[in-house]
Amino acid sequence: MDKSIKIITVDDHEIFRKGLVFILNQISGVNVIGEASNGHEFLKLLDKITPDIVFMDIRMPEMNGIEATKKALTKYPGLIIIAISMFGEEEYLENMIKAGAKGFLLKDIDKNEIEYSIKQIHKGQNYYSPELLPYFTNKYINPRKETENIYSLTKRELEVLNLIAKGYTNNEIAKKLFISKRTVDGHKANIFDKTNSKNVVSLLIYAIKKGLIKL
């Protein structure tokens, strides 16, 4: 049985798309099974083949990545989509997150970061390029609002939140705080519930808005 991670790449710039495919095919356990140059092509392709992960460009002709992501996840809710973007296009990223993307990467990423992002997302984690955090910081942090009600997060939950922001897994957080993974799972569930966050990315956006994490 083929246990490789099956990937589709969607980008209207052929040179970048082919370059990404080349890099992906060099990663052990990864198999690129399809390519598309816009959202329409991607949705047609999706009716024929089933990927595990989709690398989705945001700005494309005919149908952009935001609309394609919404339509794809409506039909295939288990699909994992990673947004890819250039610097200067950060304003589109929040819409991609709301559309259901599990991560977002800048197009200047190298093979190591691509490989790491695939592993994290395939394990059920969210992933985002750390370079994009300043964008959310500049957009959302309002010093006068940092002392607002923070939904009664405990000291331990704030510790867990800061470690999540630094990219630690649940197991790593458990070891660092000398608690069990089950306890971390409980803290994490409470944090998501108290902040009304659907995933790690939306949680981080919330935490940056409220000044709860140290960047």
Question: Could you tell me the mean pLDDT?
Answer: 83
Uncertain stretches: 141-150
Apparent shape: globular
Largest sheet: 6 strands, parallel
Encode the helix/strand succession as letters. EHEHEHEHEHEHHHHH
Describe this structure in words.
The chain folds into 2 domains: 5-129, Rossmann fold, CATH 3.40.50; 141-210, Winged helix-like DNA-binding domain superfamily/Winged helix DNA-binding domain (Arc Repressor Mutant, subunit A, Orthogonal Bundle), CATH 1.10.10. Helix content is 47%, strand content 14%. Helix 4 (93-99) links the parallel strand 4 and strand 5. The model is unreliable at 141-150 (pLDDT under 50). The chain is α/β, with parallel strands linked by helices and 215 residues long. It has helices at residues 14-24, 39-46, 65-75, 93-99, 111-122, 133-140, 155-165, 170-177, 181-195, 200-210, and strands at residues 5-10, 30-36, 53-57, 80-85, 103-106, 127-128. The radius of gyration is 18 Å and the shape is globular. Strands 2-1-3-4-5-6 form a 6-stranded parallel β-sheet, with helices on both faces. The longest helix is centred in the last third of the chain and has 15 residues, at 181-195. Helix 2 (39-46) packs parallel to helix 3.
Label this structure with key terms.
single chain; about 220 residues; alpha/beta; Rossmann fold; Arc Repressor Mutant, subunit A; 10 helices; 6 strands; about 45% helix
Give me a quick take on this structure.
With 215 residues, the chain is an alpha/beta fold. It is built from 10 helices and 6 strands, in the order βαβαβαβαβαβααααα. Strands 2-1-3-4-5-6 form a 6-stranded parallel β-sheet, with helices on both faces.
